[in-house]
Amino acid sequence: MEYVNYDCRSNKVPLAKEVNFIESCIQLERLRYKEDINITLPNEIKSKRTFNSPYAAD
């Protein structure tokens, strides 16, 4: 919730935070559907100084 309430208000967020948020969303969907959902998200981040526009979950 912190990500959605605060971090998404910024123009740019660290890519690591963005990936963490997406992984959390995937985990929630797995719980919601209670099925074995095969989703692969490559998350190798080479630089901690990489920023991205925040995910818009509208």
Q: What's this, in brief?
A:
With 58 residues, this protein is mainly α. The chain has helices at 2-5, 15-33; strands at residues 13-14, 51-52.
What does this 3D model show about the protein?
The protein is mainly alpha-helical and 58 residues long. It has helices spanning 2-5, 15-33, and strands spanning 13-14, 51-52. The chain has a domain at 1-36. It has 2 helices and 2 strands. Strands 1-2 form a two-stranded antiparallel ribbon.
Key structural traits:
flat, 58 residues, mainly alpha
Q: Note the beta-strand portion.
A: 5-15%
State the helical fraction. Answer: 25-40%
Number of helices: 2
The radius of gyration is 13 Å
SSE layout and pairing:
Elements: H1 2-5, E1 13-14, H2 15-33, E2 51-52
Antiparallel strand pairs: 1-2
